[in-house]
Amino acid sequence: MNAQDPVAVVDVGSNTIKLLVARNTSGGGLDTLLSRTIDARISRGIAKASPVLGEEGMAAGLAAIGSLVADARVWGAHRIVLVATSAVRSALNGAEFAARVRSECGHSLAILSGEQEANLIGRGLLSDPALTGLRDFYVFDLGGGSLECLFFRDQRITAALSLPLGCVRLTERFVAAPELPVSVSELDAVCSHTRDILAGSGFPFGSAVPAVFAGGTMTTARVIRAAKLGCKLQDSPRTVTRDELARLLDQVAALPLERRPTEIKGLAAARADVFPTALATMLALADLGGFNSFLHSFYNLRYGIAAELLDSGDSPLIFVPSPSVCPPPQTQPTDV
């Protein structure tokens, strides 16, 4: 593989399935050629004692993976890596889903352990040029199935945990009727559970250093704020305060599900049901850790894997693709 050849990473998450196509820049950074997200929600039922991926979720996941792999080929990706996180990792039939991905899309699906996921997210954060001045800092990434927590000393990971605090998981567990406004008692239960899990995890809270937050919830919070400011997401401030998140939670939790996307500009309908729980989880984390604000970064798991592939040219996570049975791409490259 030539150093300038692009690589692609498909991240099969609990709530969304995401694609990154990237290559090295002349300065040694990452050049994003394509970033695309498909809402698939393969994780329905993740909070059950014996979680399994349902047929509807698996079908949606397979369709999304096929579409994203086709996009990656259009952009000339020479290596395409597929990884799965909490939903597939937790499901009793996760291996069955991985086998179906291999059979129907011609690519192996690596099911990451929680430790692998957390460390690769950390690797991705180190690729963010906006964070080059940070030496000691926390990193958090909230997904549908899990919350990844990392602590950096001198830009080296000294603690990494993956905890079952994802917004899909906690919504299923604590919100009785997601189509209705979320009650104070339900939000209190989410916060209490989150604090208990975090406090018992042994994660080293207490350092007076910046906290970075990645993942869809913080991105959505910034999208909503950018819509209010009338600017693009990239032009909005990267820092989001704890008080901003609290005000946003008050607003979204008071609305029934059907009104949230229409009355809160920037909130996607596919995320509206789990957004209150996600915000409550972030607030509990902020209070326990003593964080008054978070610095947002787009660089997460996909960027970490892409950086590893482009740096080394080889990795135990790389799979040489077999001939795919997915339909060939019919579109020209577009940044979605």
Summarize, please.
This protein has about 325 residues and is α/β, with parallel strands linked by helices. The protein has helices at about 55-75, 85-90, 95-105, 115-125, 165-175, 185-200, 215-230, 240-255, 260-265, 275-290, 300-310; strands at about 5-10, 15-25, 30-40, 80-85, 110, 135-140, 145-155, 155-165, 210-215, 240, 295.
Q: Could you explain how this protein is built, in words?
A:
The chain is an alpha/beta fold and 336 residues long. The chain folds into 2 domains: 7-113 and 301-312, ATPase, nucleotide binding domain (Nucleotidyltransferase, domain 5), CATH 3.30.420; 128-296, Nucleotidyltransferase, domain 5, CATH 3.30.420. 39% of the residues lie in helices and 20% in strands. The protein has 11 helices and 11 strands. The chain has helices at 55-74, 86-90, 94-105, 114-125, 167-174, 184-199, 216-229, 242-253, 260-263, 275-289, 301-312; strands at 7-12, 16-24, 30-39, 79-84, 109-111, 137-142, 147-153, 156-163, 211-214, 239-241, 293-296. The strands form 2 sheets. It has a 6-stranded mixed sheet with strand order 8-7-6-9-11-10, with helices on both faces. Helix 1 packs across helix 3 (94-105), helix 4 crosses helix 11 (301-312) and helix 6 packs across helix 10. The longest helix is centred in the N-terminal third of the chain and has 20 residues, at 55-74. It is globular. Mean pLDDT is 89; it is low at 316-336.
Distance between the termini: 26 Å
Average pLDDT, all residues: 89
Total number of helical segments?
Answer: 11
Largest beta sheet, briefly?
A: 6 strands, mixed
Name of the CATH homologous superfamily of the largest domain = Exopolyphosphatase. Domain 2
Number of separate domains:
2
CATH class of the largest domain: Alpha Beta
Q: Widest sheet: strand order?
A: 8-7-6-9-11-10
CATH architecture of the largest domain: 2-Layer Sandwich
Find the count of extended strands (DSSP E, 2+ residues).
11
Helix content percent band:
25-40%
Q: What string, H for helix and E for strand, traces the elements in order? A: EEEHEHHEHEEEHHEHEHHHEH
